Amino acid sequence: MPDRDIKSPIWHPEPETVEDVFDHTYKEKAGPKPPSVIVWRNVFLMSFLHVGALYGLFLFPSAGVLTWIWFFACLLFSALGITAGAHRLWSHRSYKASLPLRIFLAFANSMAFQNDIYEWSRDHRVHHKYSETDADPHNAVRGFFFSHIGWLLVRKHPDVIEKGRKLELSDLKADKVVMFQRRFYKSSVLLMCFSVPTLVPWLVWGESLWVAYFVPALLRYAVVLNATWLVNSAAHMWGNRPYDGSINPRENRFVAFSAIGEGFHNYHHTFPFDYATSEFGCKLNLTTCFIDFMCFLGLAREPKLVSREAVLARAQRTGDGSHRSG
């Protein structure tokens, strides 16, 4: 892992990444809020998914050992498609990745099935730029349910759509892997999220097709979804704020564990361009370990890292007093 004491304190916004920085000039429109419009198709699909996932949990003990291993392998692979891919690489440009690694992460992202890379990254940049306002896609001020899953069950607030259209997304449009995945996203999801997790156990080691569908496919998909959603909900509500006590995002180690390193959220919203998203290196941060390994192999390079001095200075100036240097 890069040494914090050697790196320069790059926590100030860089010109090409200003779209990720919170916009203090944004003001919510006066007057009554627009009514929520329920998207019943999404309500039905999410209900079906979670009922199927609960059934998959019931079937889990009856699955073979190889299917259990496959379940966790698919879970980790698809989670990396969000954490190392859509989030740290494409949303925040916190490191650079070679073409083979970008292709690998695009396939992993399709297995995660949380919108294509382009749309996920656009919405995440809007989330950072307008966090906890009407322009935030999963505004935590609207409560746990809304920030966790409710935002996917209703039409977006008009400000989310408006601000998303105004973002500079030329880096995403210039990435051929991103645009290829966007073009063939539905096919890639059918292949990676449902077909591969189901067919491999059935064809390779003779697992029941029924179990293979409900455990490595549906249950795994629901687990990764909810782990990601906890970053939007729980990590914006519960935990301490050692780096900036004026913002909602919190340090939540349970979320960090479940989302393979994405729960150190007060740090991340304070220093969004740090590739590690936390002070703690690989501790509870498997995504950082993965990126470090990719750098070792020469498949990733130039990870951005905030210096220890910058972290301590920020914590002393704006934290809630809970920071402990070590």
From TrEMBL:
<keyword id="KW-0472">Membrane</keyword>
<keyword id="KW-0812">Transmembrane</keyword>
<dbReference type="InterPro" id="IPR001522">
    <property type="entry name" value="FADS-1_CS"/>
</dbReference>
<comment type="similarity">
    <text>Belongs to the fatty acid desaturase type 1 family.</text>
</comment>
<dbReference type="InterPro" id="IPR015876">
    <property type="entry name" value="Acyl-CoA_DS"/>
</dbReference>
<dbReference type="GO" id="GO:1903966">
    <property type="term" value="P:monounsaturated fatty acid biosynthetic process"/>
</dbReference>
<dbReference type="GO" id="GO:0032896">
    <property type="term" value="F:palmitoyl-CoA 9-desaturase activity"/>
</dbReference>
<feature type="transmembrane region" description="Helical">
    <location>
        <begin position="39"/>
        <end position="60"/>
    </location>
</feature>
<keyword id="KW-0444">Lipid biosynthesis</keyword>
<feature type="transmembrane region" description="Helical">
    <location>
        <begin position="184"/>
        <end position="204"/>
    </location>
</feature>
<dbReference type="GO" id="GO:0005789">
    <property type="term" value="C:endoplasmic reticulum membrane"/>
</dbReference>
<dbReference type="GO" id="GO:0070542">
    <property type="term" value="P:response to fatty acid"/>
</dbReference>
<keyword id="KW-0275">Fatty acid biosynthesis</keyword>
<keyword id="KW-0560">Oxidoreductase</keyword>
<keyword id="KW-0479">Metal-binding</keyword>
<keyword id="KW-0256">Endoplasmic reticulum</keyword>
<keyword id="KW-1133">Transmembrane helix</keyword>
<keyword id="KW-0408">Iron</keyword>
<feature type="transmembrane region" description="Helical">
    <location>
        <begin position="66"/>
        <end position="86"/>
    </location>
</feature>
<keyword id="KW-0276">Fatty acid metabolism</keyword>
<dbReference type="Pfam" id="PF00487">
    <property type="entry name" value="FA_desaturase"/>
</dbReference>
<keyword id="KW-0443">Lipid metabolism</keyword>
<protein>
    <recommendedName>
        <fullName>stearoyl-CoA 9-desaturase</fullName>
        <ecNumber>1.14.19.1</ecNumber>
    </recommendedName>
</protein>
<dbReference type="GO" id="GO:0006636">
    <property type="term" value="P:unsaturated fatty acid biosynthetic process"/>
</dbReference>
<feature type="transmembrane region" description="Helical">
    <location>
        <begin position="210"/>
        <end position="231"/>
    </location>
</feature>
<dbReference type="GO" id="GO:0004768">
    <property type="term" value="F:stearoyl-CoA 9-desaturase activity"/>
</dbReference>
<feature type="domain" description="Fatty acid desaturase">
    <location>
        <begin position="68"/>
        <end position="272"/>
    </location>
</feature>
<dbReference type="InterPro" id="IPR005804">
    <property type="entry name" value="FA_desaturase_dom"/>
</dbReference>
<dbReference type="GO" id="GO:0005506">
    <property type="term" value="F:iron ion binding"/>
</dbReference>
